[in-house]
Design goal:
The protein is mainly α. Helix content is about 65%, strand content about 5%. The protein has 42 helices and seven strands. The strands form two sheets. A five-stranded parallel sheet has the order 2-3-4-1-5, with helices on both faces. It has a two-stranded antiparallel ribbon with strand order 6-7. Helix 4 links the parallel strand 3 and strand 4 (about 110-115). The protein is globular and about 110 Å long. The two termini are about 50 Å apart. The model is unreliable at about 1-10 (pLDDT under 50).
Length: about 800
Amino acid sequence: MNGTRLIEKDCYIKPKKAWRLLKTADDENVTAYIYGVSGTGKSTLITRYLGKRKYKMLHAGTITLEELQIPEGAVRKIIVIDDLHELIWEEDDAIQDAIFRLIVREDVWVILSGRCPVPPWLTTIRFREGFYIIDETMLIMDMQAILKYVEQTQMVLTEAQKQRLSRETGGMAFALCVAMSMYYELGYTNGLTDSEYDEYSRKVTEQMWNYLEFHVYDKWDIRMQEFLMKISIVDTFTVRLAEMITGTNDAENLIEHARWMGNFLDEQMGANGEKIYKLRDHMRLSMQRRMHRKYTKEQIKNVYENAGLFYQLAGDPMQALTMYEKAGSTERMLSILIDNARKSPNSAYFYELKQYYLALPEESVKKSPELMCGMSMLQSLLLNPEESERWYQELRAYADSHQGSSRRIAKNNLLYLEIGLPHRGSVDMVNIMKQAYRLVFDRQATLGELSVTSNQPSMMNGGKDFCEWSKKDRELAGKIGKLVEFVLGKYGKGLVNLALAESFFEKGEDNYEVAVLANKGRMQAEAGGKIEQCFVADGILAWLHIINGKVQEAEEILRSFYEKAEKEGAEKLLPNIQAFLIRCALYKGEWSEVNRWMEQTADENVEFSIYERFLYITKVRVYIQRGKYDQAYNLLVKLQYYADVMKRTYIRIECNLLMAVTLYRMGNDDWKVVLQKGLAEAEEYHFVRVISREGAAIYPLLQAFPDDEGKAEEDAELVKTHRQYYRQVMKETENVAKSYPGYLKAGKAEVRLNETGIRIIKLLAEGYSRIQVAEQLDMTEANVKYHMAQAYKKLGVKDKAGAVLEAKNRQLI
C-alpha cells in the first residue's frame, strides 16, 4: 500500500480549464464557486491550487458566526467554505449575511465549494459581484487526461480496458483513484485479462458505492434516504410517478430539496411540458443496493407494484410488466398481457412483449380467448404460420365448447384473426369482409381496432398486401368500398380514396387525379379517422413530388407530418417517417444525414422484425450506395423470405429489383434472371413506379436488358401492351435518373474525425514521427497512439501511409 500512496501522491492530473479559471478568480480577487457531485475533485483542486499558502478552511455544516468574523487587515486572507450544499435549507440569516460580508470585502478572497449549483440565497450577490463558476464538467477528466493518468500510475491496461475505465468511472477523480488503488491491492501489476477486468470493475464499483453509502447517504435526513431509495428503481421519473412509488404527497418538495443537496439529479422538460428527473447512474444503482439491504422482501415488492400500477394506468405495458416481474406479481402481469392482446398489432406491443407471452404456460393461455388470439397473432408476426394456425384452431375449439359471453368473445377474436392474420394474405378477403359486415351490422359481432397500414406509408403494402385488389381497383371501390370502411370503423375513414390514389400512383396514371384522391382521403381521415391514414396520404403526395424531381417539397411534407405525429403521441409512426426522410436524403445525396440515421436504426442482424420492414428496405439502398453489396444481399434474402411466407407481392417485386441492382454491381450475371422476375411481376399489376423511382440505380440494367426476348411468339395484342408498358417504365425511369443522377451511386460513407485526429494525420503527412507529434501537440505518446488508432479505425486503414492517403482522398487534409 505504501507504493500505492506514493503513486497517488505524484499522479494528480490538473484540470486545466478549472485551474485557469480559479487562477483568474485569484488574480482578480473574485469569488470562485466550485460545484460537482461527490468525488469530482473539488477539494483536491482547492488544496492543490493553494499549495503552501495560508488559508482558512470552513465546513458549511458546522460553521459558526465566530468563525466568519475575520479581522480586517492589509494582508489578503483566503477563506474556503466547503460543503456549501449543507447550508441550502438552513434559515440562519445571520450566517448568510456573514458570508455576504466576506464576499464583498477587498481584503478577503472567498472560495465556495459544494455539490450543487449556486443556491437561490446566493443568487443576488452572485450576479452583483460576478462569481467565477467552476462546474463539474471542468473537473471531470476527458479521455486524454485519463490516458495520462493511466500512464503516470503505471497501470497496464489494453485500449479496450482504458475505454471501459473511462465509461465506468465517468472521469471522476475519486473513482479513478479508487480504480488505481484496487488495481495494486489486487496485485494486477502486469495487466488483466478481460475476465479479470470484469471482476476488478465489480470491486471498484462496490468500493465507490460503499463510499457513497457511508460518507454521503448516511448524513442525509432518513425521509430523504427512503425517498431516493424507492425512486431509484426507475431510470427516470416525474413528480406524479414519484408520488405513486413513494406514497408521499410532497414529492415535489423532496425533489427540490434533493436537487440542492447535490448535483446528482438531472432535470429536463418532457414533450408535454412535464419535468422529467433522472438520478445519476452510480447513485441510482447504489441506492438500489441500499434499498435491498434495508427493506424486507414485502416492502420491496410494494415499491415495485406501485411503480407497475402507475405505468399500467399510463398505458405503458412494457414498463409495467418490468416492474410487476420484479415484484413477482404474476396475476397483474397476466392482466396486462390480456389487455394488450385486445389491441391491433400496430398499436399493441406484441414484439416487445413476446418474451412474456412465450413464457406463459399453455394451460393459462387456453383459459383466455384474448390470449389465444394474441398468441396466434404473435406467432404470425414471428413468421411461424403453423404455430399461428394451431392457436387459431385452439381458439375455434374454445368457441365451440363454450356458451354465452365466452363464446361471443371467442367468435369476435376469430373474426379479427380471419381479417388480420398477416400470413394469410388477402386471399378471399372480399368474402371475409362481406361476412364481417353482416355480423357487425346485425350486432352479432364486434371487431377490435384493426389497422390496414401497420404504420407504413402505404395502404397496398401495409398490414397486408393488397396488390391483387389493384387489378380491379375501381370495381372493388364501387362494390365493397363502403362496406370495408364500415367494418374498419375509424381505421376505414378515407380508406377508399387513399387506396385508389395509391393504386393509380403505382400504375403511373394521372398525377392530378392521384393528388386529388390523396388529399380527399387525408381530409376524411382527419375528420374522426386515424393518423395512420394521414401518413398514407402524405406518403403518396411525397412520392408524387419525388417522381417529379421535387424532393425538397417531399421533405417538407414529411417533416410537417413528423411534427404532427410527435404532437399527437403517435410514436410508432416516427421511425418510418424518419426512414422516408432518409429515402429523400438518398435522392439528394445528403450522406451525413444518412450516416447519422444508420448509426441509430434497427439492426437486422440482432433480430429481424417484420414491423421494421420499411427501415430494412431503406437500409438495403444505403448498403448499395456505400458499396456494401454483401450486406445488401444478406438483408434482401431475409426480406424475400418474409415476402414469401407472408404473401407480400409488392415487397417481393421490390426485393427482386434491388437484388438485381446488387448482383449487377457485384458482377454476377444472375442479375438478369432476378430482374426478369421483378419486371414480370410488376408488369402483371402494371406497376410502373416501383421500378421508375429507382431511377439512376436501375436504369443501366433496363438499358442492358433484352425486354422483347420470348415475346415474338405471343399474341400480338399482348406484345403491344407489353411494349407500351415497357416504354412507360423506361421513359419515367429515365426522367427520375436525370432528376437524381447521383441516386445510389456507389460511394463511401462519410467519415468524421475530431480536430485532434486531423491535426495528428496532418503532422504524419508532413513526415513527423509519433514522438515528434506528441511533442508538437503537447501530448503523451500514449495519447497520440490512442488517437491514431481511432483515426485508423474510422478510415478503415491499418497504418500511417494508408491513413494519410485515405484522408487526402476524402479531402480531410
